[in-house]
Amino acid sequence: MPPKFRLPPNITPETYWQVEDVDEYTEYKVFMSELKNVCWVTVDSIVWSTVNILILGVFLLLLPVWPIVEFTMNKTNRTGLSTLTAGLPAIYKNYGDFLSTNWPNIIAKLTTRDTDSQPEFDHILAEFHLHLTALVYEREDIIRQVIDLWDPDHDIGLSHHRFGYDGCVVNVVYSVKNNFIVMSFKGTSILNLAEWLTDFTMQKSHTKNGLLPGSVHTGFFSALRFSTRSDVEPAEHIDIPPIPEEHPGGIGIWMEPREEAIVRHVAGFAKEGSSGEMLMEVKFHYILDLFQGKHLPHLWITGHSLGAATASIFTSVLLWKRSLLGSNGGAQGLKLDSVFRLHGTFTFGGPRVGDRDWKEAIDKVLTEDEYRPKHQPKYQFWRIINANDIVSALPPTPFGGSLEEKTATSDTPGKRKASAITLNDFHHLGKPILLGYRGRPFKTTERTTKDFFSNLVAEVLATPRILFTRGRFGDKIAALVTVATLGFSGLLRDHILSEYVENLQRSEERMSLLPL
């Protein structure tokens, strides 16, 4: 394969950036540029260190009173605390009525084998993933009731399996009969102080062992418990059999027997930061055993809030395996292209996750066909946010566009490009879907200040209609709070899953799909 970069005819390898004399005096143009960068990095470090100190102080103040809050909530709600709304069971029931007549359509969308078309945003698929995202928060008995409600005669063969640990819980809803799997990552529980601390950790970290490019949010990555230390093994001690030419490769060949993987996973808990990859290996073994005899089960991923962040990182790990560096990196058991059809990810209310380097590298793998195996569909990644959801604006990146450092590129000699140096250089992954308030049309562009204030005004103006028409008492209280706070209470309310259900179902485009 020829190299991607060739020297111009008038340059030889010997003369390419050859240094003949060393300048002993200051080059003030270079010095001032470096001084400017150091100045901005110092300011940025002071700002975000101050923010982290304030966050730490808040959590230290909450620590002594939080057990009292939890005890009180437990006493007032003996059957368990729903992290959503009191009307959630009705939401499940209403969606069950929708599923009763739409299952064939949804299954066809989940199991399509089209590998050529560019996927468009699908309201029906988004709504399906949204309800599965809500389900992961619930108690086990509620999940079973909902599964029975949605598949009363077991015609669909719907089942579920939930696993994980504090900070990262995954509910896998699947149908062996119809050959599909949806992995739902749980978001932040209202009373879980450890998960709130994860959310508010304003730091980013490099991943180890080539697991991902760039840097990602420290708290979100640590929630997955993937490796935080470098694994080093001598290459000569690794005995790898050749790949059969007729086989596409992947974990279908390289994964160890499940029993050995389980032993490695249990042992991994004794080693710092090495259990996350092993847990996923064990669970994918388990899922593949359930689907024995089925060809390439169709895999989808979803999550809300913290779950949207962990789902985004997990998706980026799977996609990064399609690159040369990623395929030789850590978590070899997560090469899934040979055993699953990887379709897409739907996230709801997700915060910013990784730096510019991470985003640009994953975007390249996500969008360019040369990285996609021929038998795989074009991967779709939809990032759905309510217009006034404050969590989707976190972590804040006020300096992201202004702080730059000069770094030489490898493709053009002497040319320099800009990259953010702020500690809070965080970005989203996926195509944005911006939901307007209660029936307003959605947009496929990033949220702007105009969008924010437009929907803020729409919420305030809707208050009289909500107060003086028949409806839920809780909605009337929320409307009064909206007026009292000049609409700013919607910044938090718009993050609740029930608000996503309302806005998605009542969007103009979604309504147009329903029969008259």
UniProtKB/TrEMBL annotation:
Give TM segment ranges: 46-69
User: InterPro entries per the record?
Assistant: AB_hydrolase_fold (IPR029058), Fungal_lipase-type (IPR002921), OBL-like (IPR044819)
Gene Ontology BP terms? lipid metabolic process
Kindly state which keywords UniProt assigns to this record, in alphabetical order.
Hydrolase, Membrane, Transmembrane, Transmembrane helix
The answer, when asked if Hydrolase is one of the entry's keywords, is yes
CDD domains the record matches: Lipase_3
User: Which residue numbers delimit the Fungal lipase-type domain?
Assistant: 182-397
Superkingdom, taxonomy of origin: Eukaryota
Q: What is this protein called?
A: Alpha/Beta hydrolase protein
Q: Name one GO molecular function term.
A: triacylglycerol lipase activity
